[in-house]
């Protein structure tokens, strides 16, 4: 074996050991609590929960666009994360609907109450204090607790006034017109709301629009926003009197950005110094908080697990029996290559299952079906390779040349068929996201991961294992490869 082939074996061994360790349940060989943070999430059909279909019901004259709906979706996702459910699924459907699936939720009324609220956008006076993104605050439009109260916070401006208390000055944030702190609020923010009540200068009702643009240099990315009505006058008076001081942009009482005021602003301004992704996130947050679009519940239902524990156990047993029969066929018909393919399939299963955990894939019955289907495709790749291998051996090639030729000649067919399947998975995933059908996205995602991993195990892992067997002298008997009898002399054998 060459040094490169030995290196491949070492890398395969490391990947296999790591994948098997990750795939095992949390109670086995956990290190520093790593496995506790990566768990398989079960979908609605496996553990039950609440499913809601929401539809935007904007006031007359208000237009809904895709950015606005994405902002509403992000806001809902942050809210339902507080319900304590595992891996909530929040997806837009069409141009004006949102599907919310809360696996493990038990109170549909609480879920409905939380997701129906309109996001509340505020720009507040921090009294010279820099508030980092993710800070939870109380404002003159209501306390942080009002977001989870039974009634939505009012959007009418309260009388201006100084914050209660005297917060200590923190480092000043980045200014409007120069670098700004990361605008995205961390969804996991659990900071205790500050005791001070900060004055709201303008709210979402005063924001006309927000969009991504370029800075004054014509190259850098910036976020432009426009104000309307009396909000423009109030904002001008505030910014004119507080040049050089920070302010905070707040959505649902959570700070998403704290730029510094660089100049007086009337009805429009810019926030610069953000990356392209940060600018997009900030625009979505601003639009979500300014839209003031109520959501009506089109459908609300509690979903019981369609598969009970007994059914799940029986399905697993059936899957194990089916895979066992396939493995037995591969070993009997292809012999040593069949044994190597079974080892490759075990490694494939461990890698795929580990990726499901690491990527937080929500497994549904359809997702499990996609995973099983990808195993079948991995077996199919091995069948193509080994059938070609037997043909090469019968034509008179040596074992080493037959193995290399079998893999090389079968690779184009495997590559083209798997890439076609992966393209189909991408289309299905996009369709499922657009329609809000999580059953389709789950199937497409698990099948895509499975097909990608199967290409690695069918070509790289099995090939390396066969090379190892030859180098150890185990595979030097042609009968181990199902090539019984004398080879037929051909020009190919002469070439060897």
Keywords:
single chain, 496 residues, alpha+beta, 5-stranded mixed sheet, 4-stranded antiparallel sheet, 12 helices, 14 strands, 47% helix, disordered C terminus
How would you portray this structure in words?
With 496 residues, the protein is an alpha+beta fold. Mean pLDDT is 74; it is low at 149-192 and 488-496. It has helices at 3-23, 44-47, 66-80, 108-115, 230-241, 276-291, 309-334, 336-358, 365-394, 399-435, 438-471, 491-495; strands at residues 41-42, 49-56, 89-93, 97-103, 121-125, 138-139, 197-203, 207-214, 221-227, 247-251, 254-257, 268-272, 295-303, 362-363. The protein has a five-stranded mixed beta sheet with strand order 6-7-5-10-11. A four-stranded antiparallel beta sheet has the order 3-4-2-13. A three-stranded antiparallel beta sheet has the order 8-9-12, covered by helices on one side. A hairpin with a 2-residue loop joins strand 10 and strand 11 (254-257).
